[in-house]
Amino acid sequence: MRVPQHYKKPGWQRFFAGMMCGAVISWFFFLFTYGTFQEEQVSLIEKQKEHVKDLNNQISIYQEDLHKLNEDNKRKLLIQSVSVKLLNGDKYKISQPDKTKFEEHVKDDISEVITKDIESVYQTKDLLKRTIENKVYMINEKKYEATVRELIIYTRLTVELEISFAT
Length: 167
Known about the structure:
Layout (H helix, E strand, L loop, with lengths): L9 H67 L4 E6 L9 H14 L8 H6 L1 H9 L2 E4 L2 E12 L2 E10 L2
Parallel strand pairs: 1-4
Antiparallel strand pairs: 2-3, 3-4
């Protein structure tokens, strides 16, 4: 048996040439459509990567803000400074430098409350009052006792005092 020679017949030659041209054209069509779809996918992935990057930046910004707010809240919940005010110094004719010296002396006595949290200072406010009131202060070689009139506990501890002669 012999296989017929198709390459000599022009009908078969056109058929095979058409198949080859069709295969080449369909291959180019496949490459074009595949490339188009891949280009769309790549652009979609790039958009998603950019969106994820933006979201990560937002997350980091929010985390930084949250961290700063937490630090501020921690700082706000601590006693940061002490303020002492003498209310009736004029009644005893105490000069301004002596008033300032007295206020500084009281500040030194209660300065350990700085950097303590407000809640613990509030719980020990009676002890703080007694610490101030039980001490005898010397101003111009005269002995004075202090009475706490007002004690404000916040980020700044404010103490308003009245003095009287010690007995």
